[in-house]
Queue: 3 jobs
Job 1
Amino acid sequence: MIEQLKIDVLDINHITNCYLLFDEDTKEAVIIDPADKANLIEERIAYLGLKPKYVLLTHAHIDHTIALSEIMNKYDIKTIAGKLEEGILVGNNDDCSNRYGLEQVNYNMEDFILAQDGQVFNVGNLSIEVIFTPGHTKGSVCYFVNKDNLLITGDTLFYNCFGRCDLDTSDIGNMIRSLKKLYRRFKNVNIYPGHGKINIPIDNTYDDVRVLMYNNYKIDIGGY
Ligand SMILES: [Fe+2]
C-alpha cells in the first residue's frame, strides 16, 4: 500500500510528494522523501498505526529532505540512499539549499545505508529494489516495489516530463540512459514521481518525454 502526502515545502507552493509505503499485514513502513512538515508525516504514521523501518531518499536535494533529520530521530531509523549520492549528503556537492534561502545540510554517514544498484530491502512482505537512475543528480535512484508493481521515480521521471539536468552533478547523457533503462525494463508499472500526478502508467509518459528531450536537447531517444 502506498499513500501520497503532498508537502508544501516551506509554504511557498512548491509541492513535493512524500510517500508512506507499507505492508498492510505487518504495518512495517518506509517514509520516502520526507520533504518538510515532519509533524504532518508523523501524524499520518500514527493514524495508520505504522512501524517505520527506514527512510528512503530518491535523491538528496533539499526540497526532498527538510524533515529528514527529524524523522530519523523520531523513529530512530536509518536512511537508504543511492551510493553515488554521498557527495551531496556530506556537503561536497550542492543540495540546492541556497535556492530556498537555507544552509546546506551535511549529514553524518553513520545515519545512512548507501545502496548499490539492484540491492533489495525487505519491509514486511514487500521487497523494494534500488535502481540507479543518474541524470537529475549523480546518485538519483528509483525504487521498484514488486508486490504492488509500482515504481517510485523521484525527480527522474514525472507524468509528462523528466527531471531537470542543469544542476550540480546533473548529466543529460546519464538521464537518457536512465530513462531508456526504465522504459526497457518496466512495461506494466505505475509511476509515483517526486512532484506532480501519481499512479501513472509508465508507457503513458514516453511520448511527452521523447518530445521534450527533442525540443530541449535535439536528441531523439528513439524507441525502447
Ligand atoms: Fe531534485
Job 2
Amino acid sequence: MEVKKVGVVGCGFMGAGIVQVCAQSGYEVVVVEKTREALVNGLATVEHYLNRDVEKGRSSLADKDSVLARIVGSIDQGDLKDRDLVIEVVPEDMGLKKMIFTELDRLCPGHTILCSNTSCLSVTELAESTGRPGKIMGTHFLSPVPPSRLLEIVRADTTDDETLAIVKEFGRSLGKEILVARDTPGFVFNYLLIALIGAAVRLLENGVASVEDIDKSWTLGMGHSIGPLALADFNGLDVGYMVARAMSDRSGDPGLAPSALLKEMVESGRLGRKSGEGFYKYREAE
Ligand SMILES: NC(=O)c1ccc[n+]([C@@H]2O[C@H](COP(=O)([O-])OP(=O)(O)OC[C@H]3O[C@@H](n4cnc5c(N)ncnc54)[C@H](O)[C@@H]3O)[C@@H](O)[C@H]2O)c1
C-alpha cells in the first residue's frame, strides 16, 4: 500500500508541525480538531511557520500556497474516512487516545494505518482497543517537528511487518531518519532523556553542584549545545514530570520516578521557560 492521503487528529503544538511536514512532503492532509477555535489556531500556527520560511528565503510564496492548498481542516472526525494513514496527536491521556482509536477504527477502511504520537503510553494497549492491532504503530515525532532529523517509530507487540515497512518509508519520505523501538516505557528517546534529566535533578537536590555547573558538565564536557536542566526548562517541567511519572508507573521501576524537587517545582507553578521560571529565571514567559 502506498500512503497518499494522510490524516492528523489534533493541531496543537506537535500536530501543527506534523501537518506542516506532511503537506510540505507532498501529502494531502486532513486535520481534525476538537473545536473550531482550536482548528483556526492550529492552522494559523502552520501558516506562521510557512511564512517564516518564505521570509528567510527557504521557500517561495508559490511553495507556501501549494503547501496550504494540500491542507484541509475539519472538526468532524468523519472526514478522515478515506485516509491511508492517520496520526493521532491529542494530549497524553490513554482514555482519550483509546476513544479516538476506536472511532478511527470504526470509520476508516481496512487498509488504513493508525499511528499515535504518544511520548510514553503503551502503543500495544492502544492497538488492542481496535479491530486492526496489526496496523497500529507509534510515530513519536520530536519537537520542533519540521527541523528535527529524527522520527522514533514504535512497534506495538501486535504490529505486522508490512505496517512497519510502510511507516518506515513514510517517515523517510518526510525527510526523517528512522529509529525503530519496541513498545517499552519511554521507548528509546525518552528513556535516555528522562534518565539524564532525573540524574541532573538528583545532583542538584543532593547539593553536589549548582544548576550552572551541572549543565556545564554536559555542555563543555560533552560538547552539547544545552545542559540537562536548561533542556528540562525548555521542554516544560510539567511535561518532564508527567513523562517520568508515566514511565515509572508503566515499568514499575521507582528509579524512573520524578524526584521530590521536580514535583515541588511543578506544584508551585515553576514550569520552566513557559512560566518564566524553572531551574533558571527567564525575563518573560516564552
Ligand atoms: N510537546 C512535546 O514536546 C511533545 C514531543 C513529542 C511527543 N508529544 C506528544 O504529542 C501529543 C500531543 O502533544 P502536544 O504537545 O501537541 O499537545 P497540545 O495540547 O499542544 O495539542 C493537543 C491538541 O489536541 C486537540 N484535541 C484534544 N482532544 C481532541 C479530540 N477529541 N479531537 C481532535 N483534537 C483534539 C487539542 O485541542 C489540542 O490542540 C501527546 O501525546 C504528547 O505526549 C509531545
Job 3
Amino acid sequence: MSDTTTNQHPSESTVSTKQQLFPGEVFANTTDFDTGIRQLLPRYDEMLNVITQCLPTTNIRILELGCGTGELSLKVLNRCPEVQLVAIDYSPRMLQYAKRKIEAAGYIDRWTGIEADFGAWANNSDKLKIGSGFDACVSSLAIHHLTDEMKLRLFQRIRASLTPNGWFWNADPLLPESPALAEVYQAIREEWVTQQGTTVAEIRTRMGTSNTQGTPSKTS
Ligand SMILES: C[S@@+](CC[C@H](N)C(=O)[O-])C[C@H]1O[C@@H](n2cnc3c(N)ncnc32)[C@H](O)[C@@H]1O
C-alpha cells in the first residue's frame, strides 16, 4: 500500500484555523470519515475485506487496534457471526461513533470498545485491562502513527497477547522506497480521487490537523 499521509496539513494558512486532532482521526468532523477515507484512499473497502477474509468464521476472540469509526469491526462481525471483538481507540469521539454504528447493526453484544492508547498498552500492559489470549489481532491505518521503536514494542506486546497459533493482520501505509515510487503513489492517489468526483484539495478542506505521532495537544 502506498503512503497515505493522512495527517498532512493542507496549507500553512489554514492550519491555525483547524482543529487539533488525535493522530489518525484525519477529518475534523468524525461524520466525514467514512465518506472521506473512501474518496482519499484507493480501495479502502477491498483492504478491509482482505483482512476480514483472512479470519476464520469460528468462535474466536479478536483484538482490534485503532478501530476508528468501526468500519473494520463491522465487516468482521458481519462475516464472522461467532466472533467476540475487543476494539481499542484513544479517540473518545471515534469510539463513540463506532459504538453507535455497531449498536445499530445489532452486534453490540459481541463488541467491546475500550478507550486506550495502544502505545501505552505496549509500554505497560498491566495498567490497561485489555486482556490476552486473543486468537487474532487486526488493525488498519493506525499503527503507522507510532515511532519505529514503539512499533517494535507493540508487535512484541501483540505476540504476547495472542494464543500460540494466533494471527496478526495489519494494513498500514508504507513510505515509498524512492522518489520515483512516491510520484507513482501520488499519481495513483490523484487518479483515484478524480474518479470519485472530487480533488485532494477539496478533501483536505475537511481534514483536521495533528502531529503525525504521539497524542494530541488538545482534544475536542
Ligand atoms: C485512520 S483511522 C483508521 C480507523 C480504522 N481502523 C479504519 O481503517 O477505518 C486511525 C485510528 O487509529 C486511532 N489511533 C491511532 N493511534 C492510536 C493509538 N496509539 N492508540 C489508540 N488508537 C490510535 C485513531 O484515533 C483513529 O481512530
